Predict the structure of peptidylprolyl isomerase.
Amino acid sequence: MHLCCRFLLFLQAFSLLASQIQGQETQTTEEDVKIEVTFVPSECEPKSKKGDLVNAHYDGYLAHNMSKFFCSRSEKDGHPKWFVLGVGQVIKGLDIALLNMCRGEKRKVVIPPSLAYGDKGYDKIPPNATLIFEIELLGIGRGPRSVEAFQQMDLDNDMQLSRDEISHYLTEEFRKDGKKRDPSVHGLILKDIFEKNDHDGNGLISPKEYNVYKHDEL
Ligand SMILES: [Ca+2]
Ligand SMILES: [Ca+2]
């Protein structure tokens, strides 16, 4: 993936996700996503899980007339979509539909309106529309809130992220993406990260404050 996208995802994860994740886990729904696995590669490990950064192609259809409303292969120069799984970057139904999937696996899924665009609809999608997606998972990576990302930043392995450690990480990411930036940006981002994540104000970000996904043992 392009480095700037990865970096943006990282920042987005730092600033946005905590409340969304908690909100989602308390919600229940009576309707389910119907999943039909249409292709499984002979090697089907590892499987995708919440918090992974996934790369997928998917085509979306309106169930009532099978008209196509979205095609990742023809939009945005045909680049597959990157997103963090299970945290609300896509509709809830897709967050569910792409779980436990391996690279190369294909699925056809039926998503009820309650897990898609509900009674309001969106753009080409009318109110109360059931959606069908054909999905191909192309890649699974460690998400920005993974244990690995935390450990990568935690240079002295004390299970806390200090200002220096995050600053170092930002410097590395900036260097990798190679864009010219005003030097003040670095400080502003760092300030923002601590304001939004250092809830007890001790100048360190703990695994809990960082909100490492619950499935990962730390
Ligand atoms: Ca540390
Ligand atoms: Ca703290």
About this structure: Residues 31-141 form a domain with the Chitinase A; domain 3 fold (CATH 3.10.50.40). The first strand starts at residue 34 and ends at 39.
